Amino acid sequence: MTLAQHYDEIAKCNRCGFCQSACPIFRASGNEAGVARGRLALLRAVVEERLDLTPEIEAPLFNCLLCGACTANCFPAIETTELLVTARAKYLEIHGRKTIHRLLFDHLLPYPRRLHLAARAVALGKISRLSDVARALGLLRFLGRDLHRAEAMLPRIPLNPLRRRIKPGPQPGSGKKLHIAYFVGCGVDVIGQEAGLATLRSLKRHAKIVHLLDNGCCGLPAWSYGDLDAARNLAARNLKVLAPQKFDAIVSDCASCAAFLKSYPKLFDKNDPNMPLAEAVAAKAVDIVAFLADKKPGPKVPEKPLLVTYHDPCHAVRGQGLTTEPRAILEKLPGIEYRELPEADWCCGGAGSYALANYDLSQQVLERKMQNVKKTGADLLVTACPACVMQLSYGVTHHGLDTRVCHISQVVDASF
Predict the structure, then answer these.
(1) Range 162-292 classified under CATH 3.40.50
(2) 7, 229, 272, 411: which could form a disulfide with 268 (CB 3.0–4.6 Å)?
(3) Hey, what CATH topology would domain 4-95 get?
(4) What is the distance, to the nearest Å, from the Cα of residue 259 to the centroid of all Cα atoms in its chain?
(5) How high is the pLDDT of residue 141?
(6) Class for domain 306-413, per CATH?
(7) Residue 143's pLDDT is what?
């Protein structure tokens, strides 16, 4: 649908301002153009031809985190995220894509092997400190306005990705009947490998066979940017990987991947030959949090009791409605005292690659999250999204906290 076809939805905004109290960007900037009410006013003006999609309104179109908090606090529940993605797509149609996005969406993310090579180059750059030199000289700016600063947030990257350490294919488990596909997100594959290994071990405890997929990027980064053709292409490639197999469930330990797999049908026209498989994949997609929620933990108790808190990834809490499940998992683990994190469902500012173009806003949102983490006094800050793990890890290091950040799969696996 075009932006004009969404006019009735846009016009539902009665400018009440309830979105202001929930929007991390508005709370950080105080800018009316940075909250759903202001963004929707801009979109209405565009549809009514009172305003053109010029570069002057690129910032309010693209600096939204797409966290969905506005919709959750909106009486008519306007899907601002969907509307902004539609507007971004129209903007790209007029102004074209940036070099970094053409590189990522067309030549890197569709091909896991290429992504692995690129990750290895980044890892070597970190080890040799060449990345520090490149950052100091401003050589990374062409890849993103704020990449020269955001690059410092990256942890040391392992030289070999998860799917070089463990070859994709069927992995025998100790379960009795389940055949599970493990959809490996890009973040877990190249950065959060310990979380991936913990997830794989957990899946093998409950499944007869775990198929470690040789999938590519789920397509969410492209969709979020408004590059709908690239998102469709990435999804279609993954459907081909999943097509020959009969799985009981398709599990991902990235909340963003899991949520987007469930959204695959929205990418295709009802007459598209990919639609039946997209619907089948969406029906079988499961977040690791939902998968583990009814499973018994192991008996192993940590050497000392741990005070644990939890951050809700946006694509888990609002994208999938997973609120009680992660808390139930943590509360039943031995040797753990759970303490609720204030504003646990507020975005941490990670939002995938958000900091590449919006570093300052990302850090302002993260600052609020870190102040809440300090209030808990937690030993362990747990979440279920690799992008959140990276953002929160940078936050606790930057603030000098003793809190350790990890994926919920790692906490569950540590009990065995």
Answers:
(1) yes
(2) 272
(3) Fumarate Reductase Iron-sulfur Protein; Chain B, domain 2 (1.10.1060)
(4) 9
(5) 54
(6) alpha beta
(7) 55
